[in-house]
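Each field is set out as follows.
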Amino acid sequence: MPSSPTSSLNYLNDLIINNNYSSSSNSQDLMMSNNSTSDEDHHQSIVILDERKQRRMLSNRESARRSRMRKQRHLDELQAQVIRLRNENNCLIDKLNQVSETQDSVLKENSKLKEEASDLRQLVCELKSNKNNNNSFPREFEDN
């Protein structure tokens, strides 16, 4: 006998048409039995498809949940990185300000020292000049 429900029905119809069954009640019983088997097969197919659909839906939900968790973990890592980089940036700004202040004070001191050096050079020149002229002291060294 053929295996699929449709081919089984065709086979039974051929038997009935060819009068291979003597009693019509026997053929009706067989067709009803075959129809109930066909209905059961159809119901079984629907149940299997529903189970697959449910498994697929659960699998998709779990996959979406994992994806959301990965996304949240990545977002948390990025937020932590932002905080770390802001702190690092603030430290670098503080160091830059300190170096800038140090540079300003060094430049002021350098300018002051250059002025003192210039004054001392001028004094040395005056001393040399006065030594050659009468051995007198410059006005800065005279007693009043």
